[in-house]
Design brief:
About 65% of the residues lie in helices and about 10% in strands. With about 290 residues, it is an alpha/beta fold. A 4-stranded mixed β-sheet has the order 2-1-3-4. Helix 2 links the parallel strand 1 and strand 2.
Length: about 290
């Protein structure tokens, strides 16, 4: 058991740490609330865009788009999303673990056949530290996702897919379900899986009552790039919300642990102080009886 001064200093140190973790929790919660507002404002547009596509596809419209072409995967692009900062629990570790697994799985393609797009400082540092080449730095998209920047990246990926430079695009990111739950996903972005939209349209059993000019096929061909750009932006916002939720939860746990430690140290301090007082009284009593 340490001296009274050592225990007192440790209590003060833990209290200072608690102030930091508590402040970080509140900041993360505020950022999460802001991102939830972005999601809430984005959902009507996202839902309407998906609804239009689902209605046409459920009606049996034939889709002829280069974005839906399935071909042998010889070159792949991986867009992996982490945070720019740490102190968010296992958020970044899980992303890196999933990325490592995918790279191991696709090793047979060769290192030059895997194009890496790291969104977030943590995953970018991991790749550079391990000798991987990246297709650029996209840290601003991890911090403050914007549709304008997301569309730029989506256009790059779509162009590379159209000219055959890549045959598949995969996303690795966290899906925000709740404050306490973020699901790590590995999702194929390109080629676009039309069957998913067609199935959703069938499940909703919605009649297609649109009058389309010049044709449904041409409309869908023009709609798909917008759907793909919106999907990338949605994933970025989703990942950003998951980061803030993970950090808020991690800082709450850290604050709770600090409170428990302060209680234990306070008990230890009081016991040590009581023992010291008892020893002094015994010395006084023993001295008076001599």
């Amino acid at each position: 058991m340490g001296s009274l001064r050592e225990v007192k200093n440790r209590i003060n140190s833990v209290k200072n740490t608690r102030k930091i973790t508590s402040a970080m929790r509140m900041v993360a919660s505020a950022k999460l609330t802001k991102v939830e507002g972005v999601i809430e404002n984005m959902l009507p547009y996202q839902n309407k865009l998906d609804s239009i596509l689902c209605k046409f596809l459920s009606g049996g419209t034939k889709v002829e788009s280069p974005f839906t072409v399935q071909r042998e995967v010889k070159r792949i692009a991986v867009v992996v999303m982490s945070s720019n900062t740490s102190l968010c629990g296992a958020y970044n570790a899980n992303v890196i673990r999933s990325l490592t697994s995918l790279l191991e799985e696709k090793r047979y393609l060769g290192e030059e056949a895997i194009l890496l797009y790291p969104i977030g400082r943590k995953v970018e540092e991991f790749l550079k530290k391990n000798g991987y080449q990246t297709e650029g730095s996209f840290q601003e998209l991890a911090e403050t996702p914007s549709y304008k920047e997301a569309r730029k990246l989506a256009n790059i990926l779509m162009k590379k897919f159209l000219i055959g430079e890549i045959d598949q695009v995969v996303f690795i990111y966290h899906h925000f379900k709740s404050l306490a739950s973020q699901e790590l996903l590995k999702d194929v972005y390109l080629p676009l899986d039309i069957d998913k939209y067609r199935q959703r349209g069938d499940d909703n059993k919605v009649n297609n009552d649109y009058i389309v000019e010049p044709s449904e096929v041409e409309l869908i061909a023009n709609l798909l790039p917008k759907v793909l750009s919106q999907k990338l932006f949605t994933v970025l916002v989703d990942s950003n919300a998951s980061e803030h939720a993970a950090r808020s939860l991690a800082m709450q746990i850290a604050t709770d642990n600090a409170n428990e430690l302060i209680q234990e140290l306070t008990k230890q301090y009081n016991k040590s102080r009581q023992q010291a007082i008892t020893n002094e009284l015994l010395d006084i009593i023993g001295g008076s009886m001599r």
